[in-house]
Specification:
A hairpin with a 2-residue loop joins β9 (about 220-225) and β10. The protein has helices spanning about 55-60, 85-95, 110-120, 125-140, 155-165, 185-200, 210-215; strands spanning about 10-20, 30-40, 45, 70-75, 75-80, 95-100, 170-175, 205-210, 220-225, 230-235. The strands form two sheets. Strands 6-7-8-3-9-10 form a six-stranded mixed beta sheet, sandwiched between helices. Strands 2-1-4-5 form a four-stranded antiparallel beta sheet, with helices on one face. Helix content is about 30%, strand content about 25%. Bound molecules: adenosine-5'-diphosphate and magnesium ion. Adenosine-5'-diphosphate binds near residues 28, 51, 52 and 55. Adenosine-5'-diphosphate (ADP) binds near residues 28 and 51.
Length: about 250
Amino acid sequence: MAVERIEDAPQIELKDIARSYGEGEATVHALRGVSLTIRAGEMVALMGPSGSGKSSLMNILGLFDRATSGTYTLNGQDMTRLNSRQQALMRGRKIAFVFQGIHLLPRLNALSNVELPMQYARIPSARRREAALRALQLLGVEPLQKRYPSQMSGGQAQRVAIARAIAPDPDVLLADEPTGALDRKSGELVLGAFQALHDQTGVTVIIVTHDPFVAQHAERIISLEDGQIVDDQLVANRLMVSQPLSSGGHA
Ligand SMILES: Nc1ncnc2c1ncn2[C@@H]1O[C@H](COP(=O)(O)OP(=O)(O)O)[C@@H](O)[C@H]1O
Ligand SMILES: [Mg+2]
């Protein structure tokens, strides 16, 4: 048997994933047999119109939900066999999320917002602080570390939220419509932050979007329609956002 080199091994492997909601005549088939492979370090956009099953797929990838059928392998481990507790552990260690709405806690400054999940994960305070500052720096928002969410623009707050997601050094970063609540300029800065992050850390990035402009910032676009993959292509003219990340930015 050939030995597979680590860097060639798929990090995420979905085989024939189906997810339906409800029963009987009211059953909604949100995913109808999705199979795909994503390698470590890829930056992928998962694109499709509203209702195509993007969030359903993301919830399965993020171990928030289970498929009705099919298998999901992450780093060679079968996720469908894990119990809920094991899934939660895996979620905490390996997978990070950024959502559309920016869910920073209003009473905590940027630094504390980034540190909080690591506090829950019982990471010792010195390591926590170090990881939080590194993440804020990577996203260009370290100068804002003492600011409260009300003192930040939408784009700045979203970058703090991304810093919070990546501070624990996850393998996979999942983002569901991360620029959906932002104007175009702030959205571009956030996409640039994802690109810089991806370049500098090698984390696998999966961005869910209905917007082709957002998807063009990834290396690969997987298109979903009516619960099925209808297209999967490398991006020919990838849009790159060049930005001086260290400035803190005003958008
Ligand atoms: N919890 C749920 N219960 C019932 N139907 C759902 C649920 N979540 C999603 N759906 C349905 O599944 C389909 C896919 O939804 P979703 O995965 O949210 O798509 P997208 O994120 O692409 O908009 C839609 O028809 C939606 O109405
Ligand atoms: Mg959705």
